[in-house]
Fold these 3 entries.
Entry 1:
Amino acid sequence: RQDVDWARVREDFPLLGRTVHGKSLVYLDSANTGQKPAAVIEAVDDFYRRHNANVSRAVHALGSEATEAYEGVRGKLARFLNVRADELVLCSGTTFAINLVAYSWALPRLQAGDTILVSRMEHHANIVPWQLVAQRTGATIRVAEIREDGTLDLDALRTAMTPDVKLLAVTHVSNVLGTVNPVREICREARRRGITTVVDGSQAVPHRAVDVAAIGCDFYAFTGHKMCGPTGTGALWARRELLATMPPFLGGGEMIREVSFEGTVFNDPPQKFEAGTPNIAGFIGLGAAVDYLQGIGMAHVEAREAELLAHLTGALDALDGVRIFGRAPEKAAVVSFLVEGAHAHDLATLLDLEGVAVRSGQHCAHPLLQFYGVAATCRASLAFYNTHAEIDAFVAALEKVRRLLG
Ligand code: PMP
């Protein structure tokens, strides 16, 4: 196994060299959005400087270059996730992807008496679309509960999979607790009962090798900006048979084959679900991000982040009065915490003055924070480009801030 030179990898991220409030930046908010390597920034820049044209519309050279490059990214993403390219609907991110499932798959199918099973640890993007569907169809939402350590209660989940459950929405990795859910086992159980599964891969794809085919879900959503790519990029993977039966979500150009006022013939999937001009430059950047991550190797990324997580958890555990939320045995490098006697927002604000960027608040997961009975937490989330020295700087800053708060 070849070792990665992590100090050199870090040099690939121009932003990480900057200062904030006169201090070296310590960026611990990668679960919110990831930083971008120069290769991604340059790919976007190069597209606009040398290749900019719309996709699928023009026969001229620039148009076909843009189309080829854009479709090439679909292929790259497909290989990265071990799925077919024509099963990947490119879109603006996880939020769009899940709403597409809600409006095109769930809304026409569900009715009163049906149940949508959603885990307690979902991001609002995997809760609110189902509530909107429930309101319009009369279906009911049921919650799959978690345990104190932040793991899903799998026995309770199995029991909750009653015959009225038509859809199960579960995250692969929690953005608050870091919990890695056994989505393969969960989807197998669901499939045996004829339940359609939606997996939110937002926090998984950037941090580990994900084989979507092996998971055996029906839908898998992810977002590009957390995996070194530009904002406004992402995709929904869906089984072909499902895509074939789903009506379009948005109407417009690109998603049609023929339009007349008498009627319109839609394009085949995935284009049928891709109305309008996409974020072409963004996807070119996402393609560069996939190349970049594969250049490091996702197994290396995962191992590096596990090592950083162990360092961070150990350092926080060594402090008095720090409560960590989420102690799953299989956990991604996300640490939500509170310090006794300090408000999460005060901590984050004072840490910012020390150059440390952490997120405070509810992390788009109100129901999860309700479970723990807290209004907000601080969250330090890591990526492979963070360093042990940064973790030490963060912990020193936390101690200083705590003294300031008295
Ligand atoms: N699900 C999870 C688990 C997330 O962490 C996020 C981003 N915070 C989302 C969904 C939403 O992703 P986006 O805002 O890119 O649509």
Entry 2:
Amino acid sequence: TTYTHHFDTATFKGDVTLNTGLFINGQWVDPVEGGTIDVIDPTTGKVITSVAGATSGDVDRAVEAAEKASKTTWGLKMPGGQRGRLISKLADLIEKYQDELSALEALNVGKTFNDAKGLDLNGVIGTLRYFAGWADKIHGKTIETTDKKMAYTRHEPFGVVGCIVPWNFPLMMAAWKLGPALATGNAVVLKPSEITPLTALRLADLVNEAGFPPGVLNILPGYGPKAGQAIAEHPKIRKVAFTGSTLTGRKILKAASETNLKVVTLELGGKSPTIIFDDADLDQTLKWAAGGIFTNMGQSCVAASRIFVQESIYQNFLEKFVALAQNLTDHTGSPFDPKTRHGPQVSQTQFDRVMGFINSGKQDGAKVLIGGERHGQEGYFVKPTVFTDVNPKMSIMQDEIFGPVCSVVKFKTEEGEFIRISWFSAMINRFLIEVLELANDVAYGLGANVFTENASRAIRVSNALEAGSVWRFSFYKINCAQATEFCVPFGGYKQSGIGRDLGQYALDMYTQVKGVHINI
Ligand code: NAD
């Protein structure tokens, strides 16, 4: 079955047709149990269409196809350069259809068409091209141990890899997995989020158009506890690459450990800090701080929901920051209106979750400076929300909200005073715990942002932060966009994950190394 969506908007006009079945072995098939998933438009709460929902029987079929491909046509049966050309071809086709794909992403996620194109699709195309280039550059070493003995190493694909991705950047998160998985010669079973399956379904047709052998990439929309769990448990899947919440990450790790002990990499949640020292360029910093939390309506794993501002600029920052939040509120609306800068949360569940956090902040005694309520009567819109007067133990300061909600906190110093006067009473020590301790005082460690014109302080603070990525020292004066540097590894410290996406480092996540020993 197919579904055609007719777009007649200011930013995109045209019909987009996609198959709504399961993509297994290069073909569209119906799910064995006949399950379906309703896909919702978050700006209205109405059903767009329904698509097939996979269950464990479908995962079995997909794994069988993938295993066959990995042994007969793909993996070490196809030269790396040829694999790379297919991945490049796929990137070219995605570029060709980027407006269609951006429109689907905007429709299904609620992000603006312009963001979908500028951030998501750009990221997808760039990631695939980056990894396409690696496909013929994966090789081992020779190691001579004595003049009578040598060994060589091989970086071999796992065979079948399961990729489970979330709804916030649906196609981009898929590309972060597919790029390195395919470049290293693995065959893939990809499960998009049940909330946002549309772009992955459109991608499937492009996989065939690019000319991949059947079974190399299988795409199965399905619910997490059904299709996702079946992937995590499957005995013939040797590696699972997951992006999503920490709670689901734990379930996948457990399932893997209790079945075939598959290799698991996890990109999980975050509670990222933005730290602004009083020497930073305030106008630049304001824009970055607002982008850090409000981009994608706060539905970003690196959303910087804790903003620490040095005391002498705190009041000034706050006034201007609230004005930026107001500006976003004034530009809330349809993702297809070119003036829109703020859209809805992705689903009713996420809307309820974010409103729950806003209410918990209010109940805990934090002050709402702006926002703190829904926007309009239809859809899942939440106003950009800024809290002050928080304490570090409040839920809004500890838990991932995944919405347009942040707290602004005043600090005095980088650190040091805590140590220097530590012989004072315990109360004074607590009072003087300063920004580094505060920034690191969460279970997560995904991203962090530091703004200062002082280079040594920028480096000192970046090194002391417990985070997998640190961005945007303003002294560089460059446009340092988050997470789109394809050559730089991305991933979490602490409970933000295991392993890395992107960069050369990602190749190691999709290969296993063999040492072959030879007596000469
Ligand atoms: P989620 O964990 O609910 O779902 C993610 C995926 O896991 C979906 O495809 C879902 O169907 C699947 N899933 C759910 N239960 C499963 C199970 N028992 N077994 C196997 N698969 C299962 O997360 P979400 O709500 O889709 O996404 C939001 C989360 O993703 C946030 O916590 C966010 O921080 C995180 N995220 C992290 C990164 C990163 O790179 N670190 C990037 C984007 C999003």
Entry 3:
Amino acid sequence: MTDTHTTTVAGVAVDTRHWIGGERVASAETFTDHSPIDGAALGEISRGTAMEAAAAVAAAKAAFPGWAATPRAERARILHAVADGVEKRIEELAIVETTDNGALLRSHRRGVMPRVAHNFRFFADWLLELEHEDFDTRGHTNHVSWDPAGPCVLITPWNAPLMLATWKVAPALAAGNTVILKPAEWSPLTASLLADIAAEAGLPAGVLNVVQGLGSEIGDALTSHPDVRRISFTGSVPTAKRISASAAANLTPLSLELGGKSPLLVFADADLDLAVDLAVEQYDNAGQVCLAGTRLLVEETVAEEFTKRFVEKASRLVQGDPRDEATDIGPNIHPRQLEKIDGFVQRALEAGARAVTGGHRRDGQYYAPTLLTDVAQDSEIVQEEVFGPVLTLQTFGTEEEAVRLANDTRFGLAATLATGDRDRADRVTAQLVAGTVWVNCFFVRDLQAPFGGSRHSGVGREGGTWSFDFYCDLKNTVTAP
Ligand code: NAD
């Protein structure tokens, strides 16, 4: 149900306008947001332009001195109040996110939304622990402080909308910055709910602004704005290149969290059931996970047995409505994404790949979980990010070959190892190009740890102190004795 400025999604009212300077602001034009579950129109969302971008940056700039000067303890208190608000609305946030982006309701309810609240609590608490460093140089004192940088533009994708947004929003605000958040146009709704929650928690007007619209329109206007002091972007490599070019004009510092084509290495000495569990987990969120280990690299001697067990386990996955508790894999986000996924798979099959399982669409916006073998290392399906439930399997004979294959793409986001040999794990890990390596586990993320990718998977790291380093101007004050 939609009126001019509100849409009701699964019983939850969501404002479809921007949130700028503590007020709801509508654009002249709108775009339609659809649910990937059934294609239903969810609402007409304000389609921001350079005008709203300028208004949001101006609001963030005006609010900056007041928020930067707010004592740390008070900033932390308000961020905890935001976390309280998220916790009170977990059910609403979960159902709206699932309806908007198609990821599993059970994960949103029990995993993602509680972690959204945790993101605010973690960075609020970290702020209070952040010590100014002091050291001595020939009797002179060096005093290093973290000064907030100013208005930060945060641009996020659709695969984990509120989770990825709050990894940025929470540290940026904790550090004393003001924020302009632009969520992806395929999943704009929970960002609007976050604006409501932040306002109710007492965040002053203009400290968090949320703008809606297309990347090429309002996104571009934001990243090229001279008053913006930081840009943090999570999304695709082509967009990152465009944003880097815009930011270059103003030398705006950037943090880029981009795509991946991560390897999952299975050695013969691994617990094979664990390795299979890890491999099947790569289908989570219908394969729309930047960190997914989509290239299974399996030692020759166990490849046949691994494949047999993998197919057995994958065939038990339940694909369907993400609101059902029993569902393991939901729909893909958009008809265009489905086209893209199927294009990759069909071209791979034409080039000689074999679909051990899947390899085709299903009714609606669903893609069958797919495993392809007989793929060449230099082929598109091995080198490019598909961002769907599509894995490839290659075999290796030696550890050296495994490392060579693992590192042989332009990405470097993550890697997963299944091995029973700790020495091997250490040896291989030391040679892998990856921002995160998981040994006999997957997707365990502690906010204290640095997170990011190498090569085309990103620039910079966020998490813990690294986030504060990025969102602050570090200042060293040297005082004579
Ligand atoms: P995308 O690059 O198409 O869009 C991401 C965001 O950028 C959206 O909000 C979009 O509106 C905006 N945008 C598009 N063009 C812009 C422009 N010219 N200027 C400013 N903003 C612009 O990416 P996507 O399809 O939404 O997301 C999928 C990609 O994100 C995948 O490559 C995935 O691997 C990556 N990703 C990375 C991580 C990570 O942490 N490394 C996490 C999740 C997703």
